[in-house]
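Researcher: Good morning. I'm working through a list of sequences from a screen, and I'd like to move beyond sequence-only analysis. For each chain I'm collecting a predicted structure so we can compare shapes side by side. This is the next one on the list. No need for commentary yet; just the structure.
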Amino acid sequence: MNKINLLPLVLLLIPFLSDAQSKKTRLQPGKFYEAGETLFAPRFGFTATVPAGWQGSFPRESEIFLLQTVTPDVFGEVYVFGYESSSLENLKKNWQEGTKLSESIRIKATNPVIKGDMISSEVVGEGQSINKGNRSYVAARCNPDGPCVVTFAVMPKQFYEPIKNAMEEFLLKASFEPPNNISPYANLNWSEFLAGKSLVTYAFAQGGSKETEVHLCGNGTFTANIKKTGFMRNMNPQYKGKLQGTWVTKGIGQSTNITFNFSSKSKLPPLEIALTMENEQVFANDERYFVAQYSRCK
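Model: Good morning. Structure tokens for this chain:
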């Protein structure tokens, strides 16, 4: 049995670009979600709304979505994550067995109760590092077509009931649909994404000297400053210095090709480059490029 039972085993809210073709917008890292805003995690088929008096965020490089109270009279935190379980009964068994959070802390559910399609229980901790002024509560619902969504709350003792009630209401008002494992970039429109952007590569790490800058305007024109390296110079040493012309992309999805047609003065042949989006990073011919807004287009 896997002993990590009350912590995230799978990513619920992974970094996604907005899907402009969808009625719902996938959750985005680094963004704060205010009360009333929709939370949508297609991999788990889970849609919910940030409750009144709460704020949500999905920190970058994190695997957990965090809900926090924003009212001065009540304080609590709720962690939302996914769990690949086949049933509520399996969850109940795992919660009762408990799990180690660290070498000095162990937690387990005291009395898991299944009511309808939801399971919930208070959680108690054992160990020297336990904050005895806090209480914890866990609740979960499972998608009929797949994984479960778990909420784990920690709050000062005096706020146990209001936080517990808010967490249950959050889950009960949520809805499920069949999970969708389609790539988050399946509907990425490269022409729209790149218009008004700069593609920049650096000599060393981010913050080092710029080696290549390509500025892409929405009217289909581009300007570029190619130095020692970069996808143009690497393809052919003739592509160097200050260049201009037009650009166009082919296809929608995680990968595409971008074609540069240079001005007649340069006497350079067209250049086609493969672009790929992976983990919110753009690669041109497998070379990492940073993407920035460009405001100098005419």
